[in-house]
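Why run this: before we spend reagent on co-expression, it is cheaper to look at a predicted model of the complex and decide which construct boundaries make sense. The entries below are exactly what would go into the expression plan.
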Amino acid sequence: MARMKFLCDAERCIECNGCVTACKQEHEIPWGVNRRRVVTINDGVPGERSISVACMHCSDAPCAAVCPVDCFYRTDDGVVLHDKDLCIGCGYCFYACPFGAPQFPQAGAFGVRGKMDKCTFCAGGPEANNSEAEFRKYGRNRLAEGKLPVCAEMCSTKALIGGDGDVLAEIYRQRVTTRGKGAEVWGWATAYGKPGASGAPGAPGMPAPAAPPAPPVGGAKS
Amino acid sequence: MTKKAIAIVAAALVAVALAGCGERPQVVNYKQGRYQGKPDQKAYDTAPWNGNQRDWELALANRNQSQNEYKRIR
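The model came back. Tokens follow.
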């Protein structure tokens, strides 16, 4: 099955914060918690860029690696989710995450931290699909309805796209080749190049793909 | 009277001592590195897919292409 991913095109993002608002509205997220945020670099100066950031659903998620109660799991579709019944709100995942995705609602007075909340790729959590309990704890399960994350689907400029990583890569490749800018960046051919296409490894003017390492001689164990 | 009191005290002691036998473990033993929470359903387990993974994947693939305006608009 697909490996679900987000992709944000900094050339298109206009910092409208529509994705943030849509996410909060869709899942009825409490005050103080932002599953998605728009980050702007070089704000106010020429060359300013914005990018929408949430949980990136890492293949080897550091939040899951540091969780002391092992409440994280990955679905078959590559979505990283967690069990709020098990979470103790320790905050280790927040320190481990390079994107600042884990959020902690204020559970009471004096800044008491509640259980961790983060982007679910609109896939709910470990409760019955589209049940009241699932909505209350994790938000709406749009994947079970055959829909993609609301932040990506409602993005007005389609800067933020979400879904199967292979499909997203193809959409982005087509977009960049159409607008004629962006394919010069380092690693483009590795990430988006197609065999035989211009810009792909081995194509005219491009380096050949690296040869696989030779097998070890003598059956040495690694 | 004394014997009766002793019997009552003895019975109470036995009841208190036996109460410990019904104690359930209060500490969760975590297996490091393995998910310890509740199992989750697959996205296509429930209606309208009812376990039909192929239909669900097809619906998502179609939906995915609606994000590609070069295909959507033409």
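Chain B has a mean pLDDT of 86. Chain B touches chain A at residues 28, 30-46, 48-49, 53, 56-57, 59-61, 63-70 (CB under 8 Å). Bring this page to Monday's planning discussion.
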